[in-house]
Amino acid sequence: MGYLTEDKLVIVGAAGAIGSNMLQAALTLELTPNICAYDPFEKGMEGTAEEIYHCSFPGARVTWTSDIHEALSGAKYLISSGGAPRKEGMTREDLLKGNCEIAAQLGKDIKTDCPDLKFGVIIFNPADITGLTVLVNSGLPAGAIATLAALDSTRLQTALAQEFGVAQDDVTGCRTFGGHGEQMAVFASTARIAGTPLTDLIGGDQLSEERWQEIRQHVCQGGKRIIQLRGRSSFQSPAHQSVLMVKGVIEGEGYPWPVGTFVNRGAFQNIMMAMETELTRDGVTYTVPQGTDAENAELVASYTHLATLRDEVIGMGSLPPIDQWASVNPNLA
Amino acid sequence: MGYLTEDKLVIVGAAGAIGSNMLQAALTLELTPNICAYDPFEKGMEGTAEEIYHCSFPGARVTWTSDIHEALSGAKYLISSGGAPRKEGMTREDLLKGNCEIAAQLGKDIKTDCPDLKFGVIIFNPADITGLTVLVNSGLPAGAIATLAALDSTRLQTALAQEFGVAQDDVTGCRTFGGHGEQMAVFASTARIAGTPLTDLIGGDQLSEERWQEIRQHVCQGGKRIIQLRGRSSFQSPAHQSVLMVKGVIEGEGYPWPVGTFVNRGAFQNIMMAMETELTRDGVTYTVPQGTDAENAELVASYTHLATLRDEVIGMGSLPPIDQWASVNPNLA
User: Fold this and answer.
1) Domain boundaries of chain A, sorted by first residue
2) Which residues are CB-neighbours of A319 under 8 A, at least 6 positions away?
3) How many Cβ atoms sit within 10 Å of the Cβ of residue B81?
4) What's the average pLDDT block by block, 10 residues per block, for chain B (333 residues)?
């Protein structure tokens, strides 16, 4: 045993279900003993911190605060689940506006308080848009801010393992790209079931085209399904996966799932979305995935959807107009 | 990385806040890939299992069921947080009766379904009494069933670290014995603050006798305080610590905190309570702690309280009368 680094990790939104799980996961995986837990809800934050102290992680030096500047100061790694939950009566636009304002402020605070941040993971919804908003406002290099995108792919892996009755590990190459949920590109061409390409199986005896479409649909609604079953949004899987992303960067040993990253290449301009990515000590690098013509078209459609959302947020004022990004964040020039 | 064993671990009550956290912690700590998650609440159990699948733990083979016999069959390790929560209008006796009936049935099921269980941790309230009830009914050796007792000691460690402004690791030898909460024995004589015996500090400039009594009181109410702060019972620390107990037995490398164990020595007869314990591959062994006269008297008082509760449960029928224990469980003869 031994911590991977002494660098400061800040967890934003650490009193919530996801954030408190992240705190525990980060210590259990021994990322760093030097963690600051932040939440504006001071009472809940203290309660969460107390629980973590009662775990008595050897060597841990966990602090907590409801002062964001104290939290971010000197941080080298960051995970934020600190968005506002959707409340009754709120429209989708209300939620988008609220969370993008939070993201813009987080970006500005990063610029002031921890300009040397090596890597930050943003997971509050809509994550690709909030992640983009943080990145532009933060002034950080494009590869230093990423969003959690793995769950769609692990949900595809889960569904295929269940469908074929094989171990989850035997389902490889599961990949969804672009946005999330209804608007994402589910790639069948990269997946293999115990070595056999999924595309060889679709339409055959074992998996009809119709059943494959059902599975796709099931995967796209994976988040909704957790709410139906548990009576609450997923919190364990997003916490675990986002902590693994930070681990991948600290260790420089990568991360096996797609990551949401800033994309500015070819058909995909000035957007954050899930690509085929690599995590190294320097953050995220990406390649544009090449699927079948239909998959590539789905990815373009997913991009177009995200670009519309992005433009909506620019209209709201949380993101500057694209032609000003390079001056707000020279790293994006 | 690599799992510590291939033996089957069953988590009882795995859809709840504590149980679902245990599931994640056991996989994160790589105890075994072979985990069965059980909960009578099928829908919530499926939702929890799905979340764990979406974590995609490499090599994991997690199954879930709402059939207790399928869950226990062939299990070598068990953790149960599967008690009933206290509901409005329930008296303490209602809760005691309900949970001891659950514990008695779990013990009987263990006897039938997994008589080769190597180690089980019982954590539902009142844990020492439910643990004793499981043990007597299970037919297992005394050291094979234990209860979680660490949190009182880690709360003492936390409170002293905060009081003296030192790192938590610098507070050593924190020990509470007997029962829990108001009825436990808090040992000051074993604790050291950065090497200095706590007893040398109490009554001096740094820690008045009055302040020490306040800290004791704070520690005794540690669980209540989490409810006040978080609006819910602690779930992360009990999950983490009970998974560490199982890890200690699987690895045979011990566990640093007191464990609740079957005690039948000297003044302490036919009871389960926290002692100075050692966890090895063979389960729990204990020694009776020796404190100051006042501490020893507190421990006897704590035992007496537990013995009264035990006798109440015998009256309720979940535990047989003590003179029948040896025939129900020859390992206790």
Assistant:
1) 9-148
2) A100, A104, A132, A133, A136, A137, A310, A313
3) 27
4) 94 97 98 98 98 98 98 98 82 89 97 98 94 98 98 97 97 96 91 98 96 95 93 96 98 96 97 98 97 97 96 96 97 94
Please give the helix or strand (H or E) that residue B193 lies within, else none: strand B192-193
Q: Are A170 and A226 in contact (CB under 8 A)?
A: no
Write down the residue that tokens 């001096």 correspond to: B204
| DSSP for A142-171, written as a single string | GGGEEEE-HHHHHHHHHHHHHHHT--GGGE
Q: Which helix (H) or strand (E) holds A263?
A: strand A259-265
Name B61's bridge partners: B34
Residues ≥6 apart with Cβ < 8 Å to A306 = A128, A129, A178, A179, A183, A271, A272, A273
Chain B residues within an 8 Å CB radius of A20? 236
Is the C-alpha dihedral spanning A46, A47, A48, A52 positive or negative? Answer: positive
Option in A28, A53, A155 nearest B28 (CB): A28
Q: CA quadruple A190, A193, A194, A197: dihedral positive or negative?
A: negative
Report the CATH architecture of B9-148: 3-Layer(aba) Sandwich (3.40)
ipTM entry: 0.97
**Are the Cβ atoms of A56 and B168 closer than 8 angstroms?**
yes
Helix H or strand E segment including A176: strand A175-178
Residue contact B44–A168, C-beta within 8 A? no
* Site from B56, B151, B162, B221 to mutate, A interface, most A CB atoms within 10 angstroms: B56
* Residue in this structure with the two tokens 């008297």, named with its chain if needed: B297
Residues with Cβ within 8 Å of A111's Cβ and at least 6 positions away in sequence, in order, are A137, A138, A139, A140
